[in-house]
């Protein structure tokens, strides 16, 4: 037996059956790049997600097993192994992403004149045996469960501890404490990009099997706001490579749930809700995917997004952009869309076709009566019309388009996704959607400073609720914009204050501190956060830490004396000093160290700083109090029915059941020494939780894991 460590959290055991332990997205690309044998068994780890990445992304492992390793119609099945709930959820997701919704599921989604045809098309394109009978998911995937921590899957696998296994005495450890990285080079930018009034950044254009490139995903710029068009694996790495931080993404248009287009879990860990734009069946499928990947109830995830239902084949207005979705011909419900924006007396347009079969195949399906004539005519018009930018599916194969379909396009630019290399006859006509390419559809030179000014104003109002218009005007009139390259030093530890504070408008920075013996990263700052403000508020002459640009960044520069006078004039100094003091206490701990400044400031503003004496009971089992607590210092004993059930330490959270579910206290929590906690009242924590996906998700997981 040979053990191959592919990446943190994923190990391949080369044995009688090749077994993959841990299955993060795009693991097939990593296996290909390392020229390793491909798995026949996937063991789902105990950890379902970590650092914004799911660990059970088996879809392309299955596709490789079926179509690349030639097991389709051979009778061999991919084995999915693990605990029963996780395996059953994973196979349910594979069924949904491979075969699409059932008739009953379509009925549960609601009424639509398109659902009948979509179901019929999926059946026509479904996998079939030699006799033409449609495969069920159990015909191609075999579940295998641990029983008493033993798994029999051709070889015997012992489950020894969380994410720790052994096979024939060989230890397999898929525990990890560092973020996983994409298995390819994202070719990151070093210089900041100016935002577009209307344009497109390419995050990726490859397929799920393209080992050297990220999957298909675009970033639509509209009035300096960002909309994801599909969501790639390792989203934050893709965004940061383009100088964009995750909290700059305000919306997503999702074409379908295949894994090379839909890796939405990172959006659940955003500080702010993202608007989900799409048809209702694709929204439903995306929610089901999140639930299957996390083991949570699907109903929970509806609270994490603001759904904007788009009507197919009509213009839907979205903050100055019109979006006209259309259905494509794919194995499951899939959409593309035309995005338009006014430019003086004309319009600029961008068309993303979505994953779509070649036109010749579509014509054959029309002749067979599977497709309607109106749908085929609409799709054909897309390839002939003129757009400022056309991004078609050129992946070829049984489910993807052919570059020749765009031969007669009148579009200004045609840029293919799902294509590794252009056929020679199209090399001088079309191009590939390589990561880092940018397409400016509406010039924005006059628009840029205006957009930066508006964004700075929004940030000031977010951090300082009720700020006077006179002070906003004064600071904005004195504002200027600066750019820093990735890895540039913005503030150096020990340097004198230079008379300015900064507001991050785009990108991400890292706060670093050298304590005399080692340099460590103490905080991450993203778009919407301040840097350098602590020195002037605390009236210190020198900066206590360095600030380094993690990505290309754009900063708004404000006069520190003007900023300080604003705090004095509006009597905010004492409050802001107290808030920052409290922030510094809980920002030492996860998950708060990953939250935005504005979210942590809101928590600190609402929190009551409370000293607790040894033996003092903070909450008592059975009582009806509803506060929520963060442990800042000390340890607390947890008892239930007078029996000790655990100890909570610094950074621990408790009281969430009573705060969110209006239940009596389920345990007694008492101080084991002199302790400090932050107390948040029910109404405050509810407000924060239900407007903040990352905290909502954290609290739901805490309640799921607690003994009720």
Kindly list the characteristics that best describe this protein.
alpha+beta; Metallo-beta-lactamase, Chain A; Jelly Rolls; 4 domains; 7-stranded mixed sheet; 6-stranded mixed sheet; 20 helices; 28% helix
Q: What is the structure about, briefly put?
A:
With 708 residues, the chain is an alpha+beta fold. Helix content is 28%, strand content 28%.
Protein described:
It is a single chain. The protein is α+β, with helices and mostly antiparallel strands and 708 residues long. The chain has four domains: 2-173, no CATH class; 198-443, Metallo-beta-lactamase, Chain A (4-Layer Sandwich); 446-571, Jelly Rolls; 605-705, Jelly Rolls (Sandwich). The chain is 28% helix and 28% strand. A seven-stranded mixed β-sheet has the order 18-17-16-15-14-13-26. Strands 1-2-3-4-7-8 form a six-stranded mixed β-sheet. Helix 3 runs antiparallel to helix 8 (280-294) and helix 10 (359-367) runs antiparallel to helix 11.
């Amino acid at each position: 037996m040979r053990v191959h460590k592919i990446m943190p959290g994923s190990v391949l055991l080369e044995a009688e059956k090749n077994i993959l332990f841990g299955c993060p997205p795009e693991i097939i690309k990593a296996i290909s790049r390392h020229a390793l044998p491909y798995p026949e068994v996937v063991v789902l780890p105990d950890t379902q997600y970590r650092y914004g990445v799911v660990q059970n992304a088996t879809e392309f492992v299955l596709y490789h097993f079926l179509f690349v390793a030639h097991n389709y119609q051979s009778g061999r099945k991919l084995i999915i192994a693990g605990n029963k709930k996780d395996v059953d959820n994973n196979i349910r997701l594979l069924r949904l992403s491979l075969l699409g919704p059932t008739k009953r599921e379509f009925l549960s989604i609601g009424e639509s004149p398109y659902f009948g045809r979509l179901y019929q098309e999926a059946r026509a394109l479904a996998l079939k045996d030699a006799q033409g009978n449609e495969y069920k998911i159990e015909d191609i995937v075999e579940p295998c469960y641990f029983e008493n921590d033993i798994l029999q899957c051709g070889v015997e696998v012992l489950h020894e501890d969380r994410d720790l296994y052994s096979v024939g005495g060989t230890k397999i450890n898929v525990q990890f404490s560092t973020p996983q990285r994409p298995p390819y080079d994202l070719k990151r930018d070093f210089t900041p990009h100016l935002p577009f009034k209307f344009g497109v950044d390419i995050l990726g254009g490859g397929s799920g099997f393209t080992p050297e490139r990220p999957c298909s995903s675009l970033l639509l710029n509209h009035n300096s706001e960002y909309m994801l068009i599909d969501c790639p694996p390792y989203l934050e790495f893709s965004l940061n490579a383009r100088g964009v931080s995750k909290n700059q993404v305000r919306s997503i248009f999702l074409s379908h749930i295949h894994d090379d287009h839909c890796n939405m879990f990172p959006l659940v860990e955003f500080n702010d809700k993202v608007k989900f734009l799409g048809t209702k069946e694709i929204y439903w499928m995306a929610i089901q995917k999140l639930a299957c990947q996390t083991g949570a109830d699907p109903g929970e995830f509806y609270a994490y997004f603001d759904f904007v239902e788009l009507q197919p084949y009509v213009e839907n207005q979205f903050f100055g952009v019109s979006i006209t979705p259309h259905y494509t011909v794919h194995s499951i419900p899939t959409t593309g869309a035309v995005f338009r924006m006014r430019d003086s007396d004309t319009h600029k347009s961008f068309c993303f076709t979505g994953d779509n079969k070649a036109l010749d195949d579509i014509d054959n399906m029309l002749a067979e009566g599977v497709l309607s004539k109106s749908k085929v005519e609409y799709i054909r018009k897309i390839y002939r019309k003129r757009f400022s930018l056309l991004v078609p599916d050129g992946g070829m194969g049984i489910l993807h388009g052919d570059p020749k379909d765009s031969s007669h396009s009148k579009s200004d630019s045609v840029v293919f996704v799902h294509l590794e290399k252009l056929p020679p006859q199209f090399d001088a006509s079309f191009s590939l959607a390589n990561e880092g390419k940018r397409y400016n559809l509406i010039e924005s030179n006059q628009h840029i400073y205006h957009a930066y000014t508006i964004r700075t104003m929004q940030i000031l109002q977010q951090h300082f609720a009720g700020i006077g218009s006179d002070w906003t005007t004064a600071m904005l009139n004195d504002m200027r914009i600066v750019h820093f390259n990735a890895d540039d030093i913005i503030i150096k530890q020990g340097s004198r204050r230079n008379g300015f504070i900064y507001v991050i408008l785009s990108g991400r920075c890292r706060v670093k501190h050298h304590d005399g013996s080692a340099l460590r990263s103490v905080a991450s700052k993203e778009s919407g956060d301040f840097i350098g403000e602590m020195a002037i508020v605390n009236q210190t002459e020198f900066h206590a830490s360095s600030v380094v640009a993690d990505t290309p960044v754009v900063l708004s520069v404000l006069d520190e004396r003007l900023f300080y006078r604003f705090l004095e004039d509006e009597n905010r100094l004492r409050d802001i000093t107290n808030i920052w003091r409290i922030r510094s206490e809980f920002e030492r701990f996860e998950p708060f160290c990953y939250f935005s400044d504005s979210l942590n400031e809101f928590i600190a503003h609402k929190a009551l700083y409370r000293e607790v004496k040894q033996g003092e009971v903070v909450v008592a089992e059975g009582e009806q109090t509803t506060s929520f607590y963060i442990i800042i210092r000390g340890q607390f004993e947890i008892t239930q029915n007078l029996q000790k059930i655990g100890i909570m330490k610094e950074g621990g959270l408790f009281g969430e059941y009573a705060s969110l579910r209006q239940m009596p206290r389920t345990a007694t929590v008492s101080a084991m020494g002199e302790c400090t906690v932050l107390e948040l009242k029910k109404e405050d924590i509810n407000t924060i939780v239900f407007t903040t996906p990352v905290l909502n998700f954290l609290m739901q997981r805490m309640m799921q894991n607690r003994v009720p």
